[in-house]
Specification:
Number of strands of chain A: 14
Helix content of chain B: 25-40%
Structural class of chain A: alpha/beta
Oligomer: heterotetramer
Structural class of chain B: alpha/beta
Shape of chain B: globular
Number of strands of chain B: 7
Number of helices of chain B: 12
Bound molecules: thiamine diphosphate, magnesium ion
Largest sheet of chain A: 7 strands, mixed
Radius of gyration of chain A: 19 Å
Strand order of the largest sheet of chain A: 3-2-4-5-7-6-12
Helix content of chain A: 25-40%
Strand content of chain B: 5-15%
Number of helices of chain A: 12
Largest sheet of chain B: 5 strands, parallel
Distance between the termini of chain B: 96 Å
Shape of chain A: globular
Order of helices and strands of chain A: EHEHEHEHHEHEHEEEEHEEHEHEHH
């Protein structure tokens, strides 16, 4: 099978799910004839028609609300945020209406809200965001954030079939840089399960999305230069978190670095640290440490963005610190 | 005695059969009687949380909902208890909900009339955040259009809620997509304490229709037959592919925003004037007896029947069990039976014992 | 000096600041002649006029955006959310426009967004929220959440004078239940400083807002029944967090319980646990544990709400667990 | 040769002096020349991030901003580079900003023309989230009304942005409060790839005015004098306490949403038609030379002057230093010089050494 890019994997998942289930349809800004700002839906309108690939007005709350209503009546809407940064305009609709629908009124609300997220692309403060932490404390939502093309496809299929609302973040830095070979047939990658990217015995890096790749670079450098064996866990799903996978790696290496691209304060690493503390405190031979972006809005100029975001060299230094502790 | 009208709709000005005219009266009376019962229960502190009235607005909810088929979908707000009754909500459900009973429609999760049924009777459980139901109903009706189903939707918003971004995004979306949706602006003059003049500079809320490219109709919201007529036309337009209609129903909120509100902000005499000269039930009784040949006794019989219904429902609801704490952890996710209970619930001793530690714990230099 | 309630303390702070500085004005729904849903602004319009106590349309994003614009041009707006749950409608405006204003465009944006928050009042899922965690990961914002009438007044004055945007949460359960004696004169309680509510030596409870009072009940019971000496830290300001105060209590008692009313996953306790881990891991004689609400939308029926929210008995059990560890 | 007009405004149809007529031309020419220079720099990969053009829309930005006083406040969007120039933004600022230079107005924090100056020249730095500037400008102008200052505001929104909740909440708020604000809807036919017909069902966007209770005016956005005239009237109304005006300026986006966009979605011939028959600069040149007696040579001289200005600014901007990484931690809070740098930056060894531990650490049974 030929390799395809991350964004092509997204497109394949959408096409296959729309093919499989007539209830699946796409809704978003410029996703029709134009195929979306990143071409994730390219060709879908030509193939499935204007009824199933709908160009919406610029109204994120309207789009998400409409998706919820359709989902109540048996549809499986997939909403695209042109950039995930604009999901903030649907924050009320997602946290108050969508997330609570099943609990407060027994309303089925199987929607997917997907879009390009993340930095390292000189996008500035409004085209680089990582909104996962803003939704982590909303019971009723699920949050997926894949790092490979294979997971992007398999998890998006799982998200579309999931009976609960799923926020699906696609790191735009990975869209065309990362390629993968898709398994033959209708393969689902279940939500809620982390992936061991690399086995290791001295310390563990727990991360997700684009920083998985930085963790790999760091691990290889540390193996070469320090003879350190670093295990890497890709969480893949952030809500619910895969506690079992986190605990297993802590018990194995006793040293953990939690890494994410989002800012530190209030970022997901805090929750992960708390869980490690609660579930396997006694196995820790060093404090759980975090490598994240600095606590500032993400600036756009290359030297500034590079300084603010976590780099491979930061992971290397932090791992050496943990190993030396 | 006056000979009763034939059941032929064509036979009277309203285009409604005697049964339909009677039904409209019964629904309005039931709405008012049920709300009065809730006030009594509220005073006995049997109602948990706030109580919202639609006194003087019953014609808006009843007249509009009466224009829908069972398969059509309604999105009510707190002032639209009457519309839910018309769509099949049972008084006992509403009483249980207000009293936070374990067998209430939301099993105690949500308040007052925040509940729905999208499987059979087709009304959607509202949330508090105003305006949000408009995009939701745009999506419900988009679905019907996509699937070619002969169904329409009706969503209410208050005069105040028209200021929300969600209202704007929702009606615009529905208009562009020509969704079979009727948007009813129930203008009762106030948003909590805020008069409509401080909510918008527009001469009338129906003036918003042109900005969305949809027809707009303003009607007397306290004339149930007028409300029904304009809604029926809008529903017909939606059903025949004509898309969205914006209706503005002029009415008046005679009670406070909720039971606790003393309405200090209302100009003296305003409430009394509406009560005396423009009560939707009084007005309808006059028309029924003068134009449509109903005997006062026939209406009195309905009142008695309605009273008995509410009494019976109250007895049942009062017997209903309270909610069960642990049930609170059920139903957040489809895939999950219940959330795990917090670690510290239960006995401390067991919690400590059950906390996992490495084999060598105690000697282990953490 | 006579005792006044928490909500009266809020009103006094608003009145004194409006008196002191003509740039201060209030903006919100039903706050004028009506005085607001909880009467926090009662009498202010009569005293300061319609220009300085403005009844706004139902538009939280409009209110917050307008406040930001006014702040750029020298005003000090104080926005009321009728219930803090509706702040979610201004989420985009707060996180994208307001929080970044100074950083991205050197725009001064000294606004306060205040309103009644919290549960224990049978308010159901949309009139009981604790939104602090949703904003914790937004650099540029400050978050205040007082637990006493004295702090409510002194911190609100500090918030209004602060040159950065401040989210000011007022727990409605405390509005009329809690009274305090206001110090004479113009007294400010600075943001960013925690308060030691109660000295103790065996373990520490780190919390804020309504649960401070539950912590006190628990501490007294534990003193009586178990002879345990529990220290209580009221964080008061959640962004920025008072790390020094947190570290000091950990080093003193070596056992910490972090308590909040908000749900657990993604709640602020995660961030606090991570910081304790990073700053004083070696002083911990037991894992940092959390007592919070269960991860569900807050239900309204009394037995359900009571089951979901943290109760004094929960704190007692958790403290016994920590002490016995 | 034609005798030049006197500087007396009354002396010509537009009610503008020769200097003013000339200025309008210069601003439009500068806008276009500067954007063309940016395209050149973009092709040389000296521009960091996307490049947004206003080709064919220059009259909207220039004509409207020209109606403001220096004390008045402007809120530009990405298509309104010209309006910023009129308000005093320097070409070198824009070039530095697009090239992410360390001495750019935002010190590299924000992109393209996302910057402002509320101290002296009075234009507000926009954010990407469409619609958000409308409530902000409602607040700016509310302030002027509250303080009794003789100042007005002008905010642009695109046809697409009129669909946002923020636009709705902002203009409604401003209308109710009678803020001295002009809301300019620049209708260029597209929102990225979406034609206005898929953005709204309204026949024209100006039809939204009635729904907010404000006057609405639709004008030819490619006739700079027409744009100036309608804006001047709206500004005068705002200044005299008349509150909000909604203007819809009809124009056309001849380039893609951004430089990368190939406009595959545009019907063949549409762009060419606008370019040939309805270019705002060509049209203005015709009027200047025929109606107002300008010599082509005079305009050519301005073009040369503008070219020289842009050349000079480019040279300076290219010399500007790049941003300095650690500066990224400055300016998040007023109270704080800079955010602390992350713990792992710097040497691992020192980091370990500097990590605090209890006195008895090592023996201490954690
Ligand atoms: C987004 C939002 N903001 C504020 C509130 C608080 N609130 C509840 S009802 C109400 C007034 C509603 O007035 P209107 O829309 O006219 O409906 P009515 O009560 O008159 O039927 C307000 C402000 C809310 N529920 N949602
Ligand atoms: C709230 C929001 N949603 C989506 C976007 C992405 N976006 C940027 S520009 C644009 C199109 C804007 O069209 P219009 O308002 O007509 O302005 P124009 O580009 O035509 O000048 C979109 C959808 C955004 N910036 N903000
Ligand atoms: Mg109303
Ligand atoms: Mg446009």
């Amino acid at each position: 099978m030929a390799e395809i890019t991350f964004v092509e994997a997204i497109r394949e998942a959408l096409a296959e799910e729309m093919e499989r289930d007539p209830a699946v349809f796409c809704l978003g800004e410029d996703i029709g004839a134009f195929g979306g700002a990143f071409k994730a839906t390219e060709g879908l309108q030509a193939r499935f028609g204007e009824q199933r690939v709908i160009d919406a007005p610029i109204s994120e709350a309207g789009i998400v609300g409409a998706a919820a209503g359709a989902a109540h009546y048996g549809m499986r809407p997939v909403c695209e945020m042109q950039f995930i940064d604009f999901i903030s305009c649907a924050y009320d609709m997602l946290t108050n209406y969508v997330a609570t629908a099943r609990y407060r009124a027994m309303l089925p609300c199987p929607i997917v809200v997907r879009g390009p997220s993340g930095g390292y692309v000189r996008g500035g403060p409004f085209h680089s965001q990582n909104p996962e932490a803003a939704f982590l404390h909303t019971p009723g939502l699920k949050i997926a954030y894949p790092s490979t093309a294979e997971d992007a496809k398999g998890m998006l299929k799982a998200a579309i079939r999931d009976d609960d609302p799923v926020l699906f973040f696609e790191h735009k830095y990975l869209y065309r840089r990362i390629k993968g070979t898709m398994p033959a047939g209708d393969v689902i990658v279940p939500l809620g399960k982390a992936r061991t990217v690399r086995e290791g015995k001295h310390l563990s890096i727990v991360t997700y999305a684009a920083t998985v790749w930085k963790a790999l670079e760091a691990a290889e450098q540390l193996e070469r230069e320090d003879g350190l064996s670093v295990e890497i866990i890709d969480l893949r799903t952030l809500l619910p978190l895969d506690d079992a996978a986190i605990v297993a790696t802590v018990k194995k290496t006793n040293r953990v670095l939690v890494v994410h691209e989002d800012t530190m304060t209030g970022g997901i690493a805090g929750e992960i640290t708390a869980r490690i503390n609660e579930l396997c405190f006694e196995w820790l031979d060093a404090p759980v440490r975090r490598v994240t972006a600095h606590d500032v809005p993400l600036p756009y100029a290359p030297p500034l963005e590079d300084f603010v975001l976590p780099q491979t060299s930061d992971l290397v230094r932090a791992c050496r610190w943990l190993a030396a502790y | 005695m006056v000979t009763p009208l034939p059941s032929d709709p064509a036979a009277n000005a309203a285009g409604l059969s005697r049964e339909q005219l009677e039904a409209l009266y019964r629904w309005m009376r039931l709405t008012r009687t049920l709300e009065e019962r809730l006030v009594a229960l509220y005073r006995q502190t049997k109602v948990v949380g706030g109580l919202f009235r639609s006194l003087g607005q019953e014609a808006c909810a009843v007249g509009s909902a009466f224009a829908l088929e069972r398969r059509d979908v309604l999105s009510p707000l707190i002032r639209n208890l009457g519309s839910m009754l018309v769509k099949g909500a049972e008084p006992v459900e509403i009483l249980r909900q207000y009293m936070a009973k374990g067998d209430s429609p939301t099993r105690g999760r949500e308040l007052n009339i925040h509940f729905g049924d999208v499987v059979d009777r087709n009304f959607v459980g509202q949330i508090s955040h105003l305006g949000d139901m408009v995009p939701v109903m745009a999506g419900v009706t988009l679905t019907f259009r996509m699937r070619g189903e002969d169904r329409v939707g009706l969503v209410y918003v208050g005069d105040g809620a028209t200021s929300t971004g969600a209202f704007h995004e929702g009606i615009n979306f529905a208009a562009v997509q020509r969704c079979p949706l009727v948007v009813v602006v129930e203008n009762n003059g106030y948003a909590y304490s805020t008069p409509t003049s401080k909510q918008t500079a527009a001469a009338q809320l129906v003036d918003k229709a042109a900005g969305y490219g949809v027809p707009g109709v303003r009607a007397d919201g306290n004339d149930v037959l007028e409300v029904h007529r304009v809604t029926r036309d809008a529903v017909a337009r939606a059903r025949s592919g004509g898309g969205v209609t914006l209706l503005e129903l002029m009415t008046y909120r005679r009670k406070g925003h909720a039971e606790h509100d003393n309405q200090s902000y209302v100009p003296p005499g305003e409430i009394e004037r509406w009560a005396e000269t423009n009560d939707p039930i009084d007005r309808y009784i006059r028309r029924l007896t003068t134009e449509f040949g109903f005997e006062p006794s026939a209406l009195a019989a309905i009142d008695a029947e309605v009273g008995a219904t509410v009494d019976a429902a109250t007895d049942i609801a009062e017997q209903s069990p309270a909610c069960d704490g642990p049930d609170a952890l059920r139903g957040v996710y489809a895939s999950q039976a219940a959330m795990p209970v917090q670690w510290y619930r239960g006995e401390a001793g067991t919690a400590v014992a059950s906390h996992e530690r490495p084999a060598g714990w105690g000697t282990h230099d953490g």
